[in-house]
Design brief:
globular; 14% strand; Rossmann fold; 14 helices; 2 domains; 309 residues; alpha/beta
Length: 309
Amino acid sequence: MEFSHVPVLFRETIESLAVRPGGHYIDGTAGGGGHSAAILERLGPGGMLLSIDRDPDAIAVCRERFAGRPESRVVEGNFCDLYAIAEREGVLPADGVLLDIGVSSHQLDDPARGFSYQHDAPLDMRMSQSGTSAKDLVNTLSPDALADILRRFGEERFAWRIAKGIAAAREKHPIETTGELAEIVKESVPAAVRRAPGHPARQTFQALRIAVNGELDALQKGLEGAFEALAPGGRLCVITFHSLEDRIVKQQMAAWCQGCTCPPDFPVCVCGKKPRAKLLYHKGLTPSPEELEKNPRSRSARLRVCIKL
């Protein structure tokens, strides 16, 4: 099975992990195994790498790719359960954890997975290939609930117009494919938006994908579990692809890095709070011009790294 995925900020991420021979590491979003392979190269005998992914296709590829590597453990699961999985697999405490958030190139490019408005395919978007699909949401949720999803997870200005368009279309027949949904969105937004660069359905598809997979809740829980899994001096590297994800990561890392919260006019600290982490990069890293030219999909990516104290 092929699982094509181009890891963004690849060199920067692996360097930021500072993999040490014999250490314990966790790749919480293994995908096609690109990051995991680079970690294994640097790990050497005696080390341990736990690779987790919720996508059965990714797990099949990683198990085949790393077969015969005693330092590799590949587990199907959601990274929101990272701490429990790592505890069960005996990988705690970890020297580094990597989370590459969002949809993979394979999931976008495989029409059968129903993630992209660029292909006409069954409307699905489930990373785990099980549970509630995007087709279920667009055909069963009320217009109010749909509009709320589009606003919260897609920051879509025309959420209500699109939700009404979806509700009107499904009265005639169920919405079955990505192509149908993309056309409904296009017809629902103002003409000026249709003429603007980029497809008007991009934010709608993003919002539905996040809702289907519970991505933001999983991210918050995954961050907390990843940090608890780290040994002192361990590093947490997180790659995000849109502002909603990045905001969660930025705020959580800032909270870990915050020390005393006493009012500035207090002569001495009485709260006793100390920073639990420090940032490796103050504003995070973004792709270089060379990477943007080779991989336009990396344009919105940002790498944030913190070190546990």
